[in-house]
Amino acid sequence: MLTNTKLVSIGNFDLKLNHLLIIGILALSFSVSFLLRSQAADFGFELNEFDPFFNYRATQYIVDNGIGAYYEWNDSLSWYPTGRDISSNSQVLLHLTAAITYWIFGGGLDLYDFTILFPVVFGSLSAIVIFALVRVIGGTTAGLFSALLFSVSLPILIRGPIGWFKSEPLGLFFGLLTVYLLLSGINSKNKKVAFAKLIGAGIFTVFSISAWGGNQFFILPISFFFIILPFLRTDHKFIMWAIPLYTITTILVSFGFERVSSNLVFGLGGIALIVSNLFLLSCIFIQNKNSKNKTRNSLLFLFALIIIAPSIVILDYDTRTLPFPTHRYVNAMNPFLTTTDPLVDSVAEHATTTQAQSFLFHSVLMIFSGTGIWLIIKNIQNKNSSFIKNDMLSFSLILGLFGVYISSTFVRLEVFASIGVIILASLGLTALTKEFFKNKPDNQKPISKLIKLPFVAGIIILLIIPMIYPVGADLFSLTKAPPTIMNGGSSYTIGTTDWLDSMEWIKNNTPKDAVVAAWWDYGYWISTMGERATLADNSTVSTRIIENIARMLLSNPDEAWHLLQEMQADYILVFVAGDKLRTDSLDSLYVLRGGGDESKKQWFMRIAGYDESQFLHSNGSDGTDYFFNETLLGKMFPFSPLGYVNPNDSSQQSPTYVPGTIGIYVKDIKYPSDGDGPLRLVYASSGFVEEKPGPMIGVFIYEINKEYKPVS
Q1: Are 119 and 575 in contact (CB under 8 A)?
Q2: Rounded CA separation 412/146 (Å)
Q3: Per-domain boundaries in the chain
Q4: Taking the model in full, what pTM does it have?
Q5: Are 413 and 215 in contact (CB under 8 A)?
Q6: Which residues contact 175 (CB under 8 A, 6 or more apart)?
Q7: C-alpha distance across the termini of the chain, in Å
Q8: What is the pLDDT of residues 572-615, one digit of tens each?
């Protein structure tokens, strides 16, 4: 064939045309992924979202003080006054990898800029890793399909754009590398190579979980795969040492990482690995002991495990005799817990995945997955026509099913569904291609080129459609969003400097030992960019403190002032987003529902355990008179309701709330800078000060009046 044409020989290696084709497709996959992930830079070259700012600060600490000091670091700017022990509850490998790669490749680049590019590079490199993984499962063609599909996968792209210096890009890179090394190891015919790869798989399992705790969900399909492996493989002597080698390596290496050892070894992940290994060894023993009924006895043993193991977990959930992961991980495994923890539910990335989102994310790939599975299973008995082994097909199916199930709870976990679907779709496309282009026997008429060309064109069109349709929700539109600090996490696709300017003001105009109170969403921004201590931040290590902050914000001003004194806060920050309406009125009119604290206040109420009806009208958004007149948060909003209007018919207006209407607000600063109340407004960002119609981003910083004399 033309693709096997030798181009040049280098020692014992012959460079052929197909090698150039593989290199070209992988380079294309990397480039497409890199460009799509980099679109957000059009709004500003900044870190994106919240966690990346802490991760940057932690990396900076390593660069400035060394790795040893990092493990001894108690961050005094977090969770004032107790601080936070960083190495025990952080993504340690993310910080270490970033610091080490910066020392090697950083050159003269500023660390902040380096961390902005870091997720784009590792996220794009993952396309090459998934090629290697799927190549082990289904061959080179399937691997190339997977690299291309990975590079344009929407769930993966939106969890790893430029500036997204969070867990997922590096975590998925390490996670996919883990699975590749594991499958490659157990498929290797060279025992020395298998030994090295399995040890590497164990090491990178721990690395992946340390970089992103979500990678524990890779452990579950791997464990289930181990359970069915004795039924799929006949080389029992090999897997009897290979699988325990991987597991033992994983457990031993995890003891070098404080957070991983506690969450993995003594959690469901470690239990799943240990139980699956014990079952594998026991099953092989049973099969060898009684060769006559070995399959029946092994299946009975498997059935007993399937019944007993979940029963123990369910019965133990209330007593907690066995160690359990945090609520987030239990929630992901049990979708019925979705609404039981308001703090977890308040996080946007923990929203339950809808059917519309699943179809938008995977659409055509689900068709290829189903078709491919059918074709593969159809031909699996014919070893001459099948390109995938039983164990590799089984692992692909297990990974796909687990991915779809896990992602059904949190939209953040759609990356696992995406990986599973990409692998199955790649195998499906390969099966279709091989079925369509395979050489026919002499007695069968070959498929004409007039039919083959439309087939290829149809496949290309099906793959392109999700990239350009639906308009406004296409791949390019959804991956081009401003960095969160440029729009405050609001619903507006704009880039402003309100938050950056506010953090600069805090750094330059407040005492270095000042403590800033704010909702936990903004903690990392304040401690990293403002360089001041906060009461709570995005690590959410203390639910109790977050609940206290919510109660403080919803208390009456005098009671809230007392609570702020107990918290030792010096300043308090609030964020409001809305639309300034175009009007001929002398007063500026606003609609406040843009994604700031005005839109989060119902979560404050739920987390505090308060009845929302006291604070909100029946539309669940606009505050009541009680909210604006009797709570500290309501008085911190520098707005007051003017009236209410029907959004579908502006002629229907009312001075009081009527169901079906929304509030119209005017500026009203209740705590001016020269006032004698519990707070004094000392800073308002430019979005509030400037009189421009359109989206309004307002960051407001109040100084707590230590001389205030509460009535009560």
Answers
A1: no
A2: 21
A3: 2-340, 341-435, 439-481, 485-704
A4: 0.89
A5: no
A6: 208, 212, 215, 218
A7: 89
A8: 999 999 999 876 666 789 999 999 999 999 999 999 999 999 99
